[in-house]
Amino acid sequence: MTVMVRDLPADERPREKLLTYGASSLGNAELLAILLRTGTQQASVLHIAEEVLARYRDRGIVELVNMAPQELAEIKGVGLAKAATVVAAIELGRRLSMKAAEHVEAVHGPEDAARYAIPRLRHEQREHFVAMLLDRRNHILAMRDVSIGSQSASVVHPREVFRLAIQHSAASLIVLHNHPSGDPTPSQEDVAVTQRLVDAGKIMDIPVLDHIVLGGDKFISLKEEGMVQ
């Protein structure tokens, strides 16, 4: 027998819990159930929300960011209207996180650079190798894609990085890239690419201050790890 949300005690229903205890008190399925609003005669809205999350369990709820409404609508009990609501809510959240990152005005260390870049790169399914271009006071002039690679590698040449630096009159730069796997551990290729860029920066008199590898909400600074000279 399927338990419907209306059969739950009032303080266990997702909407009522949110209003009483706040959104942070709800699990992912409960939050998603509020967006879906209603279930079917055969399944409660909580059950449908759990089905949606189970569909993407390999990468977790983050995978919803990459889902088109039509794909979500294929799940029984969702439909296009509900799928559009979910996708709209996720996009609002993504924009809010990117807006918060804009408050990073100057980079004083890898934490600042990562905080600026993570909202832009955490959901990408391919590697994006980017250059964060800084002025003499370490204010961010721009962050630009250098290359977009496969799920396992980015192809980077120093000329592309320093062409961007010259275009923006950058005094220095930080390079970053994401690992779609969520594991920010640098590869040997990452270390080799970084050293080539650091050496080129010395010749160009545009220092490469760091290479930061992002994985989900985590990051590793190659400079802090002593992986480059």
UniProtKB/TrEMBL annotation:
It comes from Selenomonas bovis. This is DNA repair protein RadC. Residues 106-228 form the MPN domain. GO terms for biological process: proteolysis. PROSITE patterns: MPN (PS50249), UPF0758 (PS01302). Belongs to the UPF0758 family. Pfam families: RadC, UPF0758_N. It comes from the Bacteria. Keywords: Hydrolase, Metal-binding, Metalloprotease, Protease, Zinc.
